[in-house]
Write a structure and sequence with these properties.
Elements lengths: L7 H8 L16 H4 L18 H16 L3 H13 L4 H10 L2 H7 L6 H9 L3 E3 L2 E2 L12 E4 L23 E4 L4 E4 L14 H8 L2
Helix pairs in contact: 3-8, 4-5, 5-8, 6-7
C-alpha cells in the first residue's frame, strides 16, 4: 500500500482534529482546522459531522493515529501485534513503540517541525545514532541512545535556526541545540504522550 498523497491539511479536516503534519502552520491562524474545520468533499458544508457506528469510530481512531505517525497499514498492524505480545496494556505498548521510531524522536527533540519533515531529514542521512548514520525512519531507539545531527550537516540552512534555541520536548528525551546532540533518557510511557489518542478503540478494532 502506498503512502497517502492526500494534502496534509485535508487529512486533519478528515479526522476532525489537528494531526500537526505541517509544523508551525498548525499552530498559526493559517491552520486549516482553524479556518475551515469541516470534513473535505461535497459534504463539507454540513454543520455537523456524521455520527459513526462503533466500528466507524474505531476505524477513524486508527486512521487518525496512522496519519499522525505517518505509517502504513501493514506497519501499523505489526506494531499492534508486537504490542499485544508484550506484558502490560496493549494500547500503551503500541503508542510507546510508535514513539520510539527515529523520525518521531527527531521530531520530539525539536530537530524537525513535523514528523513528515523528520522523516525527510532521516531519509537524507542527516541523523546519527550512537555515532553511526541511520537513514531508516522506522529505526527503533533504545534508552541511552545518543541522537545527533551528522557533523558535516550541521551547517545546513535547515538547522541554522535551531542553533542555541530553546525547545520544548517530553521528559524522556533531551537535546542540546548548541552541540546538536541529544539522548533518549528513558523509554516513553503513556503519560509522556500528550496527543488526543483513544488507543483502546484501536485495540477493540483489531480484536474483532
Amino acid at each position: 500500500m502506498a503512502r497517502t498523497i492526500q494534502p496534509d491539511c485535508r487529512q486533519c479536516r478528515r479526522e476532525g482534529c489537528k494531526l500537526f503534519l505541517k509544523g508551525e502552520r498548525c499552530t498559526s491562524k493559517k491552520c486549516a482546522m482553524e479556518r475551515r474545520p469541516v470534513i473535505p468533499g461535497q459534504h463539507g458544508n454540513s454543520k455537523r459531522r456524521v455520527a459513526f457506528s462503533e466500528y466507524g469510530t474505531q476505524l477513524r481512531e486508527k486512521q487518525k493515529v496512522k496519519r499522525m505517525y505517518g505509517v502504513l497499514e501493514k506497519q501499523f498492524r505489526t506494531y499492534f501485534e508486537e504490542a499485544d505480545k508484550k506484558a502490560g496494556v496493549t494500547g500503551e505498548n503500541m503508542l510507546s513503540l510508535l514513539e520510539r521510531r527515529l523520525d518521531n524522536v527527531v521530531y520530539r527533540m525539536g530537530i524537525a517541525s513535523s514528523r513528515k519533515n523528520a522523516r525527510q531529514i532521516v531519509n537524507h542521512g542527516h541523523i546519527t545514532v550512537n555515532g553511526r548514520r541511520v537513514n531508516i525512519p522506522s529505526y527503533r531507539v533504545k534508552a541511552g541512545d545518543i541522537i545527533a545531527i551528522k557533523e558535516n550537516k550541521q551547517d545546513n540552512e535547515a538547522f541554522k535556526p535551531l542553533r542555541g534555541s530553546k525547545v520544548v520536548m517530553p521528559k524522556w528525551v533531551e537535546f542540546d541545540t548548541n552541540s546538536f546532540s541529544g539522548k533518549v533518557v528513558a523509554l516513553p510511557v503513556r503519560e509522556d504522550i500528550d496527543a488526543d489518542i483513544k488507543e483502546q478503540l484501536i485495540v477493540e478494532l483489531y480484536s474483532r
